[in-house]
Amino acid sequence: MKDGYQRSRLPLVVVLLVLLSCILSCSPVKEMSGGTPAAKSTVSLIVKMNQGDYWGTVRMGAEAAAKEFNVNLNVSAPADEKDVQGQIQLVNEAVSAGTDALVLAANDYKGLAEASERAAGQRIPVITIDSEVNSPKVLSFIGINNYEAGKKAGSKLVEQVSVTSRIAVLNFGAGAKNADEREQGLLDELARYPQVEVVSREYCYSDLKLCRELTKKLLTEKHADGIVALHAIASIGVADEVSAMGLAGKVQVVTFDNTPEDIEFLQEGVIQATIIQNPFSMGYLGVKYAVEAIQGKKIPKFVDTGTKVIDQENMFWSDNQKLLFPFVK
Fold it and tell me: Where in this chain does the record put each Periplasmic binding protein domain (predicted)?
């Protein structure tokens, strides 16, 4: 009787084993060939410096994408935008640590080429944002058309100044392709107006104190009546000094980016217009396309995240408010 009872249970045991096998085979757990769960991919984001609202916004975009696409995100940057060697070291460290993809805002167009190619040589996808790198191994550049952005700044300044004006330019410094292209676009646009004289071009990197000192020099020694500041720190420095000298509205100022200081100076009439970018999109799309590259998908060679000219007249338009304050719902 007992043997018969055990034989009658065998089909039930077989059925249960089959069901268990089906459940396990349909499990959503991702496995490696050895049977252990696969680790999440890691994307390394290396930007120009570890401070400033602009780079903070880039990071927020990257973090949003990392969360959406379920990857680990390592963010690093040198303390200063002039520290090219420091950024090269960070790239090399990310490669040595086994990153799966690299998203890079390069401090120097040529200086970061070798490190980027070394990463690509180890089959690590390299994507640049904001600033390009001189290497065909880079899969994609996500940023703006800097030459056209410079032309926009020049055109807007000419609208603000008199027919015969003395214009000064404050830029980051030589070596960064985006800064060079932005300045060239500006100069080409101003060259269309023979009565407009470019009296000086100065470079203050990301040193706010130096930006202010150079602005004072441009106003007192060069007698500039219009200034174009081509990056965020220069924009703050120029507006600070123009305001401190009591020249708001007398000296016409066109800047770049939408830092809180920029927006306040725009409202107060110290700045006449600012050319804004979309750093959140740069960070987000950098990580998004890094993930797709890891997966072996084809990604676009260039993604233009766009620019827009913001002045007192259009800054309160609803669409522009979303660009100026991307995190306010």
Answer: 44-298
Domain extents in the chain: 42-144+279-306, 146-276
CA distance 319 to 162: 31
Q: What angle do CA 151, 299, 184 make, to 5 degrees?
A: 15
- Whether residue 49 contacts residue 208, with contact meaning beta carbons closer than 8 Å, is answered with no
- Residue 19, pLDDT score: 44
pLDDT band at 323 (very low <50, low <70, confident <90, very high): confident
The CATH architecture of the domain made up of 42-144+279-306 is: 3-Layer(aba) Sandwich (3.40)
Say if 42-144+279-306 and 146-276 have the same CATH topology.
Answer: yes
The upper half-sphere exposure of residue 38, i.e. CA atoms within 13 Å in the direction of its Cβ, equals: 11
E-assigned strand segments in the chain? 42-46, 72-76, 101-104, 126-129, 140-143, 165-171, 196-203, 226-229, 252-256, 273-276, 302-304, 308-311
- Kindly report the pTM of this predicted structure: 0.83
Which CATH number is associated with domain 146-276?
3.40.50.2300
